[in-house]
Design a protein that fits this description.
130 residues
């Protein structure tokens, strides 16, 4: 369903945005607090340097903000419409959900940010087969 070569493939499967073969983050377990924000230095397949310049990922804070706002709005709608909580009571589920999803938003924001700037190149050779 999600094809290799799309940005969504790179984001959802933690793959290098240029070759879609090497991993982007250290571990695949999102909730591993040891590796929650650890990225690899470069792609193991195409050698794309993930830290393109100092402070490159400061822009990912805007992505984190957008994801958090979306999660907060969805949580508010669910808790207000389905569970019939009033405005003040809705803040508790929002805070809990934001805390629980923070590892996901941290990881996704970085990989979304680099995917904005790096395009998939299907012509790259697999370095393991050279």
């Amino acid at each position: 369903m999600i094809k290799k070569g799309t940005k969504l493939y790179s984001v959802l499967f933690n793959k290098c945005p240029r070759c879609h073969k090497g991993s982007f983050m250290e571990g695949n377990n999102i909730f591993s607090f040891k590796n929650i924000n650890k990225m690899k230095e470069s792609c193991s397949n195409c050698n794309l340097k993930y830290m393109m310049e100092p402070s490159f990922y400061y822009g990912a804070m805007y992505i984190t903000y957008a994801l958090s706002v979306g999660i907060s709005v969805a949580t508010f709608i669910i808790s207000n419409l389905i569970f019939k909580l009033n405005l003040l009571q809705c803040f508790i589920p929002i805070v809990v959900v934001l805390i629980l999803t923070s590892p996901i938003t941290l990881r996704f924001s970085r990989i979304i940010w680099i995917n904005i700037f790096v395009k998939y190149n299907p012509k790259l050779k697999d370095s393991k087969n050279d």
